[in-house]
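User: My collaborator sent over this chain with a note saying "see what the structure looks like." That's all I know about it. Can you take a look?
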Amino acid sequence: MTVPVSIEACPALVLNADFRPLSYFPLSLWSWQDAVKAVFLDRVNIVSQYDRVIRSPTFEMRLPSVISLKDYVATERRPAFTRFNVFLRDRFHCQYCGGHFPTHELTFDHVIPRSRGGRTTWENVVTACGGCNLLKGSHLPREVGMWPRVRAAQPTTHLLQEHGRSFPPGYLHESWRDFLYWDSELETG
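Assistant: Without extra context I'll predict from the sequence alone. Here is the result:
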């Protein structure tokens, strides 16, 4: 006997018109309601479907598991400067000790401290764990011998997308795999 899947556990992977996900991290997902609405408004194509069916008195359809936009949405050339994008650029690694940390244990550090004239820019902010950030404090890197492992720079949207692909979410429906990992080795049989 098959256990019925909760309708809430049926999000749709959203692909751009070129069949690439709109984003990898966070993964571009729409709720089943938004996906069905977009189908009815003729804004998307259904690429793949779940086995789960929804019904009304006059209509029945399988829920979409993968949809593609009919109109291409251009990605921004310059990503927004956000705390999360700094962490993603640095792959969630402290740039001083090299440790990998969950987001809630990370902060960002001004390489040249603001108290020393440093600015909050891509080129002056790196990911740091709490311990390293506290140790470095308001010192210059040369004063405490703490140099970032990678020079801070503004990432491209493409770089952030590539880094995001390295951190898949906990749940990936089998119908999404071809669109998320097209460079993975195919099984031969």
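A starting point for your reply to your collaborator: The longest helix spans residues 32-40.
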